Every structure is written in structure tokens, then in C-alpha cells.
Amino acid sequence: MAVEEEGLRVFQSVRIKIGEAKNLPTYPGPNKMRDCYCTVNLDQEEVFRTKIVEKSLCPFYGEDFYCEIPRSFRHLSFYIFDRDVFRRDSIIGKVAIWKEDLQTYHNRDTWFQLQHVDADSEVQGKVHLELRLSEVITDTGVICHKLATRVLECQGLPIVNGQCDPYATVTLTGPCRSEVKKTKVKKKTNNPQFDEVFYFEITRPCSYNKKSHFEIEDADEVDKMEIRIDLWNASNLKFGDEFLGELRLPLKFLRQSSSYEAWYFLQPRDNGNKSLKPDDLGSLRLNVVYTEDHVFPSDYYSPLRDLLLKSADVEPVSASAAHALGEVCREKQEAAIPLVRLFLHYGKIVPFISAIANAEVRRTQDPNTIFRGNSLTSKCIDETMKLAGMHYLQVTLKSIIDEICQVHKPCEIDPVKLKDAENLETNRENLRQYVDRIFTVITKSGVSCPTVMCDIFFSLRESAAKRFQGDPDVRYTAVSSFIFLRFFAPAILSPNLFQLSPHHPDPQTSRTLTLISKTIQTLGSLSKSKSASFKESYMATFYDNFNEQKYADAVKNFLELISSSGRRDHKSIEQPILLKEGFMIKRAQGRKRFGMKNFKKRWFRLTNHEFTYQKSKGDHPLCSIPIENILAVEKLEEESFKMKNMFQVIQPERALYIQANNCVEAKDWIDILTKVSQCNKKRLTVYHPSAYLNGHWLCCKATADNTPGCTPCTGGLPANIQLDIDGDRETERIYSLFNLYMSKLEKMEEACGSKSVYDGPEQEEYSTFVIDDPQETYKTLKQIVASVKTLEQEHAQYKRDKFKKTKYGSQEHPIGDKSFQSYIRQQSEISAHSI
User: Fold this and answer.
1) Is there a domain that residue 75 lies in?
2) DSSP SS3 for 49
3) Which of 160, 134, 132 is nearest to 145 (CA)?
4) 590-606: average pLDDT
5) Nearest-CA neighbor of 415 among 579, 554, 538?
6) Residue range of the domain that includes 563
7) What is the value of pTM for the model shown?
8) Do the domain assignments include residue 331?
9) Among candidate residues 136, 326, 153, the one with its CA nearest the CA of residue 738
């Protein structure tokens, strides 16, 4: 979800690898072990949790999480929870990384010390405050100074135990005095509107000074005073009200200006220094990649985008802009991800991959090493298969992977690792059955293979056969090296990375999947001596039980089908494809006249045909909404039901109101529902952002429930439900990479000049670049540099303009915003340097 800033869109995303925790404190019981899981939170809002690792003080999670961040946040938090025998969860500790510090740990494994968590430190939200110092002249001609403190509103307060009934206390403290006043309690809202004013006498009467209205006689005393705002959640529990955050402001700053109005971030309560050592709670290993893309209107990217998109037509392809990106990036994967997404978006991925694959095949000397390296070609094909083939994997493998993860049949065939109660022959038979089933569904799935993958495979097959005409099997191995080695085998090995499983599998299941993946990889390789390809003797023994010719024939038939010229799969488009499922809370739609319109937890399921919900997973649907009946999918304002993360699925007769588990889930559901229903000709152009309650719409106050909407629907998204790609955003990412590696681009330019005038051995510093035509490559590089520098100037101008317009203390940048303070320092340094 992009934040619009005067034509510029800002996207935030984060990719996290949760590794392991170590040295957690022992459980105060006889076994001392803990059952722990880890959560990922935006501030205090949970957006992901790992599986529970049982009986360990050093739990290994090995889980990956990616999300588009749909709102502003102050820090990324990770909590370690322990679940006891009564299924109660208690917090062991947390790691909190401020947003502005995320780049410090960018894409590198880091151990973080766990910190203590208490109610006073768990703070979020902001408060809008106005202070005014005024003079009151008495009848006798002397002055009293009074402070007016106006608490206007708060936003984003935390919800405690499922509810938030906030109020504020306003305290004036100073030498030998403390005066407290309190606002009214606001029920069921974490965005309360208070707008209450409190008056405090600041000084004793003093002589009037005509030179300065605000020259206060006892200024030193005033300088020691402060106003404190505390936010509380009114609780019915006997333990008292919960602290939500505080704000402390010294009054001396009012000596410069008699009034001040601003937004402030709430802060934790200062309870003094902790006596506990920082390593008391253990540590957590994380790898965090936070990305913030600032995307300009499409016209800004035309020069660079056009240069990239014509790469397939450049002769030789090594002189193209896309190939140059692969040459300068530190890792080929870094270049492949945005390139593939860009070419897929514009329908040019097949000619591009064909061009770079042909060039690589021409450089390959041995058919046995074809596409075996981590080249730009192999990484681009990997990324294409991941994007275009995700639903293909779901249809082919998911049901069997689910069964393996749930049933836990013993499949260990290494005699050394065999458990006492296990039988080697039984385990071999279990493993053989799984391998047979997976092999069969793969080799019979050719008609479901996505067309774009088939077109790429056809190109690979033809290119390899032409280059190595004496090897009749190379037409198969060129394709099998991708479809088996880089697609099916990795998906079986790590189903969580391919959306086949929500979590990393447990150790026993992981071992079973490893054995299956190894065998499937070997069955699909068509190598001459397959038993010898196994390093482990027990794997070679297991493989010897397979009828090699039978499996080889099935593989060849499958490879022929998925790499045939002109093959198009029309039937698979009509098949129901599961797009998303999970528990959410929905409000009853009121089909029955006297039915209760309450909220209930339901299992939701979306395919490209219908949107359904049922009581539990696998039950018969209680309601089915055909996709053609979804007229719009929009957010629902929080004030409608005093509930966060709600959205509405609007149908001809009514709207279905749904609450997602968190802001990330809400965004995902809205996006996928919008995409799948985008082609509906009856889609609405306006909608009601609030609910229809008590005989009227809360947003526009219209009384008829069929009144047309009062707000324009959000902009349309790509109708392609499988590939959600923003071409401008991908071009922005490519610009960022070119900008990051500008020094290597300049080195490549030097290499072109060196090669064009000198035909001797390559200089060592230039030998890493593939340059077939120095003159053409040099021309392309000059165009790249010019385009990148133009975009760099646009970004710099945008930052300068934003710096001039942005007010510190505004609703967007409250006082206490560390990231904005850092931004101010950077811009001040830039401005000073430019002068």
C-alpha cells in the first residue's frame, strides 16, 4: 500500500529471517526447559508468529517473513513468549529496533540482546497538545501568570486486553508543589477526542513590567516546573488502570513564546535504572531487510525503463542495460528480482531470458555444466518460476506436503540415525510411497505448467540442442536442471519459502522432506550414473530399488510436454485456484429479519471463483459469494464498530464487514479480493467508508440503506491475480541499484575503453566483466549513467522541497520522532554543504 505525497508514492516493505534464540532463562520448575515462540510486531501490533519450539532454552526457528508495511511505525519489535502446560503465554523478553536504525543491520545476521518488558515500557501513540501562558492583571495593577493546557486528541493508543477506554491526567509539578487534573473517560476508542482545557496558576502576583509582558519575577522557579500528560486505560479490574504512555514538558521553553501547539509521541514511564544485566534474558539472531521506495510518476522513468526493455533486442545482449545491471551488482539475485518483475509486467520476459540464455549457452563448453552456475540467466529463470509458478506448486504439491507435515510417518533410512523403536524397512517403504506419489503428481502436471514457464523452457531446449548437437539428452537436461533442480526440489525441501506451509517444518518432517527432495532431484536429473551421484551409501541403496527406465521415460514425457512449442493451457485457467485462506472475525449480515448482528470467528477461503466462510477449516461453507457479486472491497472506518483492521466486501444487497488479525493481514485480503474482482463490469465507483447503523450511514448521515456511496472507491489494481507488479516501483529499484553501484559502472566504462584500444590480456581489475562489444557496451553505459543522474537529481530536489514544507511537531512528524530528527540533521548538513 503506497502513501501518496504530491504525486510521489512511498512503499515500505520488510523481509525478516528469524534465526534462533540462545541462553534463555531457565523455567522455574523441575525440567527447566521452555516451549517458546517468537512474534514480529509493528510497534506493539503482532503481524507474524513462528511455530512453538518445545523443550529448549536455545530454540531454532529458521523462519522467513515478508510483508508490505501498510502504515507508519516507530520500531520493529520481536517478542519471545513461553507457553506453559496450561497453555498460558508469558513474555520472556523483546528486541525493539527503531525504524531509523534498520539500515544499520541491513541484510546481515545480527545477535540482539533480549530486553525486559513491562507495562511502563510498552508505549505507542501520540497526543495533540496546546499550551498557552497568559497574564491576568488584577484590580490592584499586579500580574498573575496562568498556564492553559489544552488536551485536544490522541491517536494510535495501544489496546489493552482487547479494549481501550482512555483518559488523560494533566499534572503541573515544581518545587514543593504538584497539581493534578483529569479528562473524561472516552469509551471504546484508541483515537480519543478530548478537547479539554485545564488552568494552572504559575507564579505569585508580581509588578507589571511594560518592557516585557512575560518577564517573570521568579523565573528560576518556573524553569524548574514541568507539565506532565499521562494517558491511562480505565479498567474494571481490581489491579487498577493501565498506563498507556506519558509526555513531560519543561515550562522554560514558554519563556520564548507564550503559546505552543504540537503533536508529541508518547514516551515510556521513567522508572529509574534497571539493575538487571543486559544478558540476563538471552539473545535472538535476526536478519532484517527494510526497503523504502519513493516512486515518482511514470514519465520520470521513461528513459531508464525504455533502455531496459529493449535489452532483448540489443546485439550482443551483453551490451544491454539489463545485462549491465547483472554485471555490476554484488549478487546476481539482487539484479534478477526487479528485472524479472519489470519484464513480466510489460510482457517481455520470454525474449529477454531467451537472449541472455542463448549468450550463456554459446559460452558453455561442456553440456554437463549447462546452466549450473549462479549466472544472471539462472537467477532470472528462478525468479520467474517463483512468481509465475507459485499457484502451479499449490495445485501440484500442497496437499501431499500438508499430509507429510501433519502425519509424521517415520522415513529415516540412515541406519546411524534410526531411533530404537523404528524399523528400517518400514521407513524405506514409507519414504518410497511419498517419493512415488510426489513424482507421479509432478510428471502428470504438465498441462498445468504456466505458459510463460513453458515458453522459456522451449527456448532453453532449442538453444541447448543447437549448441550441443551431438548430445541427444541435452534438450532434456537443459530444462530438468530448472524444473526439478531449482523449482520442485527446493519447494519440497523448504515448503515455507514457497507458500506451501506457513512455518518451517519441525526437525523430523524437515529430514523427511530432505530425503524426498534428494530423490526427486535425482530422478529428474537424467544423469547417466544416478546411484553414484549420492554421497551417502544409504541413499544409493534406496535409489537402487527404483525402476530407472520407467522413471526416465516419465520424466522425458513430462519435459517434452512443458517445453513444446505453441503449447497453451486453456483449461487450467478455468480451474479453481486457492488464493488465500485463514481465520478472521465477521459481523453477521442480517439475512434473517430478527437475527443477531454479532461478531463471530470464521474460516475464510478465497479462490478465483468464490469467496466463502465456514465455522472451521474443512467444514461446509456457511456462505458463498461469487466473485462476480463483489462490487468493491474497501477499508471500514474504525469508529464504525470501535474495532481496528476492518474492511468491507460490498455486494449488491449488503456489505460483509470483516476484521482481520492485524494491519498486514487486512492489507493482504483487501489487495487480493480487489484484484480477483477487478474485471467485474458492475464495480462501484463510490462507497460508504463507515457502516450503516441505527437507521443511517455514519459517514454521510443518509438514512436510506440503498443511498449511493459518499466517497470515491480506491484506484484500480492490476487484474492479474497471480502477478501483482508495479512497473514504476521496479524501475525505481533498478535505479537504486545502479546508483548504489555507480563506481562499478564507471569501472565498467573504463574496461570498455581499455578493451577497445588494447587487444592483449585483460587487466585483472576488469576481468570480472563480460564485455563482448566494448563500443556498444560503452554507449549503453553512458545512457544508463545519464538516466540515473537525472533521477538522482529529482530525488534530491524532492528531499529539499519536503524539508522546506515539513513542520516538526505536525501530525505526520510529532515531536519525539527520532527518524525525523535524524532526517532534519541530514538535510541541514546537505544544505550547509551546498552553500
Assistant:
1) yes
2) strand
3) 134
4) 73
5) 538
6) 390-575
7) 0.81
8) no
9) 326
